[in-house]
């Protein structure tokens, strides 16, 4: 057996000299140094290089290092398209991080910790925007869901007392603040025919208000406070998610008792309630000590509704409602407004066996309010 061992410098002479046979014609009889590789029989053809592809394989590294490529098998190379270069002088695009991303982040964090969602969204979307949510949003901390005291503390600053001066007397009702600059939703019958309107907030401040729009067919009205800012707007929920038996809280000003809180449950859904749209008819009944006249289940309550009436679908509740609660808030267990209290029966005769609230109250679903809001802001259906 013959062993060939190369020592340093053994082939320096060959490496430093040109191949004497390179470029000369080759013949079979020509002696060839066995240590020199034979010249190719033809001129190598240059392979075109794709400048826009990068071959992702380790064989490329091996070839560039002088390997013989004898790793066995055939490699299937997949080209990866190179990213197009930006135009000359064009600045690289930057990812925009605007208020939408910030809003989403705040909403996620607030939902995780419970309370504060409504305030955070209002601050980001603008102080004059209505805060709206689904019934899954929690205005109160999640640990306080259904707690009447916590709900009252969170929502009471968003409920006001409304005093309207009429041609033949006065009317007292309630309202719900929907924007921090003083937009308030109430019942049409609370402000109908009013020559002036005064609003008192939960902290005792008094404002003058003007009617923006009314819709007597839904018994809704939108009023706006003058020179108001920084008010706490309520969060409007989703009345379509309400179920019979759900816990509710009512806040209003019955008999002028500002900020009165009562609680109960949702007794029924989609009740047909008929109310009077005749200003003189309703005001006459109110001045006699009763509430606004309405009809339900074929019976009339609080007097005669008259010939001019409208019917709407309402939530029924057994939460105690009395005259003055009209236009106030019906609130779910999470602190969202799900209805505007509009019709209630309270016997005017204190000597009767059924004097006071008998647990028969109705509220306009908040989704009805939201769908009518643009019309009210434009002056209301009554002015079109």
TrEMBL record:
UniProt biased composition (Basic and acidic residues): 1-18
Protein name from the UniProt record: Protease
Compositional bias annotation for Low complexity: 281-301
Sequence segments annotated as region (Disordered): 1-95, 275-309
Keyword Cell division included in the entry's annotation: no
SUPFAM superfamilies xref list: Trypsin-like serine proteases
Signal peptide: none
Transmembrane segments: 100-121
Pfam families in the record: Trypsin_2
Domain of life from the UniProt record: Bacteria
Keywords in alphabetical order: Hydrolase, Membrane, Protease, Transmembrane, Transmembrane helix
Keyword Translocase recorded: no
Organism of origin: Streptomyces aurantiogriseus
GO biological process assignments: proteolysis
């Amino acid at each position: 057996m013959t062993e060939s061992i190369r020592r340093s410098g053994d082939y320096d002479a060959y490496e430093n000299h040109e191949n004497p046979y390179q470029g000369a014609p080759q013949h079979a009889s020509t002696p060839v140094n066995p240590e020199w590789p034979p010249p190719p029989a033809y001129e190598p053809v240059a392979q075109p290089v794709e400048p826009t592809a990068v071959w992702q394989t380790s064989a490329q590294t091996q070839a560039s290092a002088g390997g013989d490529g004898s790793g066995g098998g055939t490699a299937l190379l997949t080209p990866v398209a190179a990213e197009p270069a930006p135009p000359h002088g064009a600045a690289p695009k930057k990812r925009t991080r605007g208020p939408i991303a910030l809003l989403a982040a705040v909403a996620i964090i607030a939902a995780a910790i419970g309370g504060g969602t409504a305030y955070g969204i209002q601050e980001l979307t603008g102080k004059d925007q209505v805060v709206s949510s689904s019934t899954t949003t929690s205005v109160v901390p999640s640990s306080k869901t259904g707690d009447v005291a916590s709900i009252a503390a969170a929502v009471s600053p968003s409920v006001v007392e409304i005093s309207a001066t009429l041609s033949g007397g006065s009317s007292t009702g309630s309202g719900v603040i929907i924007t921090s600059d003083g937009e308030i939703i109430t019942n049409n019958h609370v402000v109908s025919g009013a020559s002036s309107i005064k609003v008192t907030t939960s902290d005792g401040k008094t404002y003058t208000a003007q009617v923006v729009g009314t819709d007597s067919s839904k018994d809704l009205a939108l009023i706006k406070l003058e020179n108001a800012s920084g008010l706490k707007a309520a969060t409007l929920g989703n009345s379509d998610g309400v179920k019979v038996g759900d816990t509710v809280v009512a806040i209003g000003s019955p008999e002028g008792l500002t900020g009165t809180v009562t609680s109960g449950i949702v007794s029924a859904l989609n009740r047909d309630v008929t109310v009077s749209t005749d200003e003189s008819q309703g005001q006459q009944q109110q001045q006699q000590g009763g509430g606004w006249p309405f009809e339900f289940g074929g019976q009339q309550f609080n007097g005669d509704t008259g010939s001019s009436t409208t019917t709407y679908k309402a939530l029924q509740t057994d939460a105690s409602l009395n005259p003055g609660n009209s236009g106030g808030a019906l609130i779910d267990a999470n602190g969202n407004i799900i209805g505007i209290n509009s019709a209630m029966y309270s016997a005017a005769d204190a000597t009767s066996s059924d004097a006071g609230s008998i647990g028969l109250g109705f509220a306009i679903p908040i989704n009805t309010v939201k769908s009518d809001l643009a019309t009210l802001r434009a002056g209301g259906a009554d002015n079109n």
